[in-house]
Write a structure and sequence with these properties.
CATH superfamily of chain A: Formate dehydrogenase/DMSO reductase domain
Order of helices and strands of chain A: HHHHHHHHHHHHHHHHHH
Structural class of chain A: mainly alpha
CATH architecture of the largest domain in chain B: 2-Layer Sandwich
Number of strands of chain A: 0
Shape of chain B: globular
Number of helices of chain B: 30
Radius of gyration of chain A: 24 Å
Oligomer: heterodimer
Strand content of chain A: under 5%
Strand content of chain B: 15-25%
Number of strands of chain B: 43
CATH topology of chain A: Formate dehydrogenase/DMSO reductase fold
Number of helices of chain A: 18
Shape of chain A: globular
Radius of gyration of chain B: 35 Å
Chain lengths: 470, 1024
Amino acid sequence: MYESPIRRPLITGKTSYAKITDDIVTPIEAAPTKWWYLGFGVSVAALGLWLLTVGYLLFTGVGVWGLNKTVDWGWDITNFVWWVGIGHAGTLISAVLLLFRQKWRTAVNRSAEAMTIFAVICAGTYPLLHAGRPWVIYWVFPLPNTYGSLWANFNSPLLWDVFAISTYLTVSLVFWYVGLIPDFATIRDRAEGLRKKIYGLLSFGWNGSAKAWQRFESVSLILAGLATPLVLSVHTIVSMDFATSVIPGWHTTIFPPYFVAGAVFSGFAMVLTLLIIMRKVMRLEAYITINHIDVMNKIILVTGSIVGSAYITEFFIAWYSAVPYEQYAFINRAFGPYWWAYWAMMTCNVITPQLFWSQKLRRNLAAVFIISIFVNIGMWFERFVIIVTSLHRDYLPSSWAMYSPTWVEIGMFIGSLGLFFTLFFLFAKFAPVIAIAEVKSIVKTSAEEHIKKAAEKEGMDLKEVNPQIA
Amino acid sequence: MDIAQKKYWRSVDELSNSPAFVEEASKEFAQEIPVEEMLNEEGMGLEANRRDFLKIFGFSLTAATLAACTQTPVKKAVPFVAQPEEISPSIATWYATTFSDGYDYASILVKTREGRPIKVEGNTLSGISQGGVNARVHASVLSLYDANRLQQPKLAGNYVSWEEFDSKLGAKLNALGGKPVVLLTNSIISPTTKRLIENFKAKYAGANHVTYDAISASGMIEANEANFGVAALPTYHFDKAEVILGVGADFLGNWISPVEFTRDYTTNRKVSKDKPKMSRHVQFESFLSITGSNADLRVTYQASKEGVVIANLYNAIAKLAGASTINAPKHDLAGNAIAATATELWAARGKSLVVCGSNNTSVQQLVNAINHLLGNYGNTIDIAAPVYLRQGKDAAMENLVADMNAGKIGAVIAYGVNPAYDYYKADAFAAGMKKVDVSVVVSEQNNETVQLAGFVAAADNFLESWGDAMPAAGKYSVSQPAISKLYDTRSFDEVLLALTGNASSTYDYMKESWKDVFSKSGASDFGTFWRTALHNGVFEMPVVGSQPAFRGDVNAAANAIKAEGSELELVVYEKLGLGNGNLAGNPWLQEMPDPISKACWDNYLAVSIKYARENGISEGDIVKVSANGYEVEVPVLIQPGTYPGTVALALGYGRTHVSKAGLGIGANAYPFMTFNGTRGNVSTKVSVSKTGMKTAIAQTQTHHTIEGRNIVKETSLDKYAVNPADGNVRPYIQVKQADGTFKKVYPGINRNAVTLWDKRDYEGHHWAMAVDLNACTGCGACIVSCQVENNVPVVGKQEVLNRREMHWIRIDRYYTFNEDGMMIDKEKEYNMIQNGDNVQVAFQPVMCMQCDNAPCETVCPVLATVHSDEGLNQMVYNRCVGTRYCANNCPYKVRRFNWFSYTDNPKFYSNPSQTDLGRMVLNPDVTVRARGVMEKCTFCVQRIQAGKLEAKRNSRGVLDGDVKTACQQSCPSGAIVFGDLNDENSEVSKLFLNERAYGIIEELNVLPSVNYLTKVRNTQSIKA
């Protein structure tokens, strides 16, 4: 067996297949910890706030937000794009990294994908609720109807959005669930009574036969192939919500790559925020190692640099275009009334990820956690800057206006975080947060103990086999 | 035959028929059902028997029934038993009538639908309003449906019948014991009412008629009496004037007859290639009015120096004329404006005009003398054709209040006036009202003066009664009812008829007075004459008369002018929306943004930039303003163009007894007026102190500079004469030709030349609009007219603060500052402004541009906004889901979203469509938009449709001018032209080819269907 000596082990400590199963399934079988109750309680409370604010919104009208005749989108679409962006890491990890045969993905893909799905659900609430008449929002679907030739407008990027997001959600959900099937079967096999029945149902009668595994592998590959273009297309299309408009600051061809990079950037930041806590609370340090975090930080560094270059390119193009409106839009971003949002974005998205050039910081959990939060905040501000500062001062100065959110918008945002975390806590309690079967597949190659054993068996010097361990 | 009936036994038990069996068989169920036992199980501790069951059953049934009955309001629709001849459902009926409330006058056409008056338009046959109508007259139709109207006569606070009212009042008036009765009215221009007043005076010995104008022209009337022996106002011909000087006279805003003046003024402001000439307008004023904002040269002065400015102007002109000068302290304005303007006026003598807003008799005498020296009488001013729109003499009112307080007056019958609110000594008036024996108020609305009256006569709305008017010599107009009386009310004429014991109807009585007009008219048959007058709404005949000779003592007038001022002075003025405050309860007027400040729903202290900087005052600070022993607390608005030592406060606010919409809005400024023979609007010795509190002023525009953008294009007259396209650089695209060369293509002219889209063919019509920026004065009549026509909701102050006003048309207003020869038009340079009183203003009406390549259309996911084959960008309310992307993507930001349900959310109580009565005013041709949908200007698509139908009915095509949008029709200056671009001969087609025509931000290639004509200023040249 050959393992590249520069690879660090992906599973540390003592390892056996039984131990992996035990480590991951025990939290599902045991009663929830008080920390789980606390976290879940807070999340449900926030979800309650969401229900309250959404109820008030639906009862009274979109006027309960701070929007106006000039700024018709504010926190609603900012949060939508932010959540969609967050939903990008999961599929990237599970699909793209699967195709690239990156073994480190096995430890993080399950929870990252769950996060993706929950984030996309949160994102989906915004286009629904931002509409003036959400009860007829189904008109955006090209449904057969009795209105004669009335149909959806295929020119509208909002329609593309509907397709992009719904496809993405569907594929992500199926991909995630397919991956869960063998793991549900593992839980089933250890369970008794009602629990056995439920997990039996969820595992679709998985029998662990070679044929089943072969099919599982094929389906995973096919779904990975389907999901990969979606990683690029979803945010490309979301960016077109802006890029196809005539508004200075929106009408930009750089948006698709810039949005995709930003989405991956923010998605990985959110994955890190969650995993750093999760590995600690659920004692999964052996599986989600510091090496995993290091690798993800490198992706953050790359995508963060792309985003930073895009910011600078936008400024250059605004100057180079010689269009006064375009130029004003960018000067206004940096020095207008919303300068603080711009500089918050620049600091969080351009400066902080550059710290990851230092390996020390990449492997320092506290630093990574703080930086990941910074990136989350920065990417929120990026969307706010793009949406609000572009709209609030566009062509005719007479219509220039300021926008600030009301308690309802803030409540809905906190509430959508509540929705996200409620789902995530439920997931962490009832489903394996690490893909058991997939992790097992790398034990023989990437577990520290096995590398040591292999070296011993072969009578080789561990230093030669893997200097990173020795 | 005996038919034996066989019997079969079902069981042995039945055969034996034992008592146990009989009992068992009578039960429905063989086994006992353990109901009690079941209900007594744990947790079901209910001792239920049949009665309880029935009770519970009955209760639940009733409760369920009640809960299921959502009370649907019962609406009764009573069909006509006999279809009235004049009313056809869905077809509008128009009546010519007259609006006259002693402040505004307009000959109008009233549109009624199914018997309800819903819209006012100007009567083009009137020589005075000439088809124009201002915002107040547009809004007046809502007063008819005002919940604040008096619905029945009242006596000492109790409702009574008219019979009781008449008999008790008659008895009281006859028992005054020699004390006189005083009729206190606004300026009555109705010949019929005047006749009735004479009858009244004849019947009640010693009766007197006092005319009181809240905003008086007493100074001018007295000056004309002194100089010409004519106690009236003259007719002004702004159209004949080549050089106009306004000194504190807001003649395009509120001064005397602003609609007439706007029409006349703008005819001489429109330029063309063939006629590169326009009048030169110089305005001296102490705060920024819309007249000043339209001037070619505007110079500020200290408010109290008005007389001195006029005296110096007199001297400057007298020198040029070789006449003797008068004694006046030497004074000139910035840039020696008085001397320079005198030269200009002198050069244009006979074709110049000087008007002054002062209410001081001496100052007005000097103004008369100046116009006399300039030879303007008989040319631009006609004193032989007197105007009666203001008749009040301030001294008469002053004396009346004194007499009332002295107990010398027996009875006061007040009509059309509200001195308890708008008299500068309202308290003295109120005290006097308590001292008269009989106090009668004839009023349509509940107001402050009504509170003081013993007898309250509920008056008709002007749309409910007969009447007439003679606003100027030789100009008559008729009022006719457009609806029968909504309540138990009477017109003032009817009240007078009753008091004089005349049994004839107002219609007959009025017809009688028109016999007098008929006799002068030279018409042959009264029947025809009367019917024509009624149909046309007006009857006008030329007034021939020579100008009376000028006489008067100029030196005495000059000596009477006081020049003392103080460092800080307060001017009170009228706004274009509320005017004198009579219609303060009208939500349309409250929400109409002030043309200059763009503020609505409030009055505020306008201060100069310099004053604010020096005193550390910022916008929205609430200050205490005190002068003449009166004080108010109002917010500050920093108003460019204000003289540094002047602060200005609008009249018409702070009403205490008015419709809900006007309650608690602003502060009353009338008590700041002064009296010195006539009432003045300048207070000296003013103190302004900060209270430390802050509030927000609701403005529809908060960014005031144009940021150097080419949105309002301007040039000067001299440059225009050389090159008609001056200042109008239009964007072009270099298009590669087949031979490899490049050709410039102007997308604004060669529409569709360069486009990503399929070429649009407009086979029928292609509707378009042109707006002449030279003619638009910014008055805002179009805003209210559009609001009335299109059922645009009123959203209230908080929503305007939230930047969510719903107006479909707005007038953008931009300031450019001239600071020591440097032009400042960018926000970042604003801090460099020291004075800010030298400001240039540009107005630009903006409505939906109905772009051919509309950016809103492509982004709507549900096709709720689509292009019509006539070039209209249509909004399908029923299809709209409310994503608001269209509004974001509109480069002109003309789309308006229904953030709330404005028709039933109680927060928007000012919106007329919230009450059954208010809903009467809605235009049935226009959908009332629901919550959550987008709306915007439609180019009055309902009018286009009506025009097309009318043309079809007459078997012809639509002719140019058949369709007029509401904004176009109401525009007093004729700045808006609407028509068909496919018709080469239409006015709008010609204007689109004008050298001055341009679209806003044409470089986007959205192909707006609204073009603007470059603003030409009559200045030597614009400094860049």
